[in-house]
Design brief:
Length: 130
């Protein structure tokens, strides 16, 4: 599988997980757990998927052009992502203190899902490009 086909497949997976998580967040939470629902929670799936997509794109470009620098770039991208996520969580908690717990629960769940998807995809790509 070429890198472009691989990245198209990854983009499709990210889009599918994003749509599913968005629908679950916006349908299940207000229906079954209205005390935890806040109108601003719609941004969480879009933010996590968007950052995952952009940073994953950067990692695939590194694998294509400079495969020997992949580990360094992977560590840098992971650090940047974690700092960006921590900053976003801090801002949200300061603005919407009453909804901090559901926000962090949704954020953490999506972080784990998208990180697993990203790592799995990177491992598949690295197996094909030794």
């Amino acid at each position: 599988m070429k890198t472009n086909q691989y990245f198209d497949a990854f983009a499709l997976q990210v889009t599918g997980v994003t749509v599913l998580s968005y629908l679950l967040t916006m349908a299940i939470l207000p229906t079954y757990f209205p005390q935890f629902y806040h109108v601003s929670l719609w941004i969480v799936p879009l933010f996590v998927s968007g950052t995952t997509y952009l940073l994953h794109w950067r990692l695939t470009k590194t694998i294509q052009k400079k495969p020997k620098q992949f580990v360094t770039v992977f560590m840098a991208v992971t650090g940047i992502k974690l700092m960006l996520y921590l900053f976003a969580i801090l801002i949200y908690v300061l603005i919407f203190t009453a909804y901090a717990v559901p926000f962090m629960a949704i954020f953490f769940t999506l972080y784990v899902i998208f990180t697993a998807l990203e790592i799995n995809s990177l491992l598949l790509l690295l197996k094909q490009n030794p």
